[in-house]
Amino acid sequence: SYLIDRFEVTNEQYGLFLETYPTDPRATLARLWRGEAFYRQDKFAEAARDLYAFLTKAPPLDKIEFARLRYGCCLFEIGRHAEAATTLGPLTADTVKDPSVRQAAWYYLGLSLHAQKQYPQALAALEKVEAGPVAGDAILARAEVRSAQGEHADAAALFATLVREHPDHRRLGAALLRQGEELRLAGQLDPAAQSFQTLADRSKDDPAGLARAHLGLGWVRYAQQDYAAARDLAAKAGAEPGLTDDSLYLAGLAAFQLKDYA
């Protein structure tokens, strides 16, 4: 895409500058902006190297919070979760000047703690995210923590909060799917069916989303002992290549219950 190509050019230009003028006073900032370009390309390991170099070479004071945030995010993305938490923790202090940095730090700190299965601490961090571009993501993350703790009804309620309060969120379909799954696990089968049906209704132009809705609804019907409906929904979901195995498994279970051994 245009943006990816633009960031690639940025990387090349800053790389040439740093190779040619390594002692230039602007070299430190060049590492920061090359790191940011790598980050925007999801090249997190490369970004982390540049951001670390920036932070350890007398960086300008007004760029330290931003660079530390980006570095912590990169550490999370490459799986160094404990280091990410250590890096991000100081950025949650009230003394941090930029509130958007503080909110993003709470969010990624929560993700890092979740990845380490420190669930109460992860929830406490994520609940601090009250505004900004990651507010909806924080609700989703809280729901996943609740799910990991086996608190399926609470997880479903949080997914429902995302659907209600952030109707334009880019992961709204995923939230509806997870809401239905958590409701099913909580034994709330009729609300689960409604969630999957809502997802199906809004996924008519999205074959993959529609197939996931059908599969989820199929499992609900199976739990309700409506095995014929479960079998039919599994067949519909099986048209999506990525769901073939799960669909066949559900169809087999339903056929067995219907004594359809052919």
Could you give the topology of this structure?
Elements: H1 2-20, H2 27-40, H3 44-55, H4 64-77, H5 81-88, H6 99-115, H7 119-126, H8 135-148, H9 152-165, H10 172-185, H11 189-201, H12 207-223, H13 227-237, H14 244-257
What tags apply to this protein structure?
single chain, mainly alpha, 262 residues, 0% strand, 14 helices, 72% helix
Order of helices and strands: HHHHHHHHHHHHHH
**Arithmetic mean pLDDT:** 93
The tally of beta strands, per DSSP, is 0
Question: What is the molecular shape?
Answer: elongated
Q: Which structural category fits the helices and strands?
A: mainly alpha
Distance separating the two termini: 50 Å
User: Uncertain spans, ≥5 residues at pLDDT below 50?
Assistant: none
- In percent terms, what proportion of residues is strand? under 5%
Q: How much helicity do the residues have? A: over 70%
Oligomer: single chain
Q: What's the main sheet like?
A: none
Instruction: Specify the number of helices.
Output: 14
User: C-alpha Rg, in Å?
Assistant: 23 Å
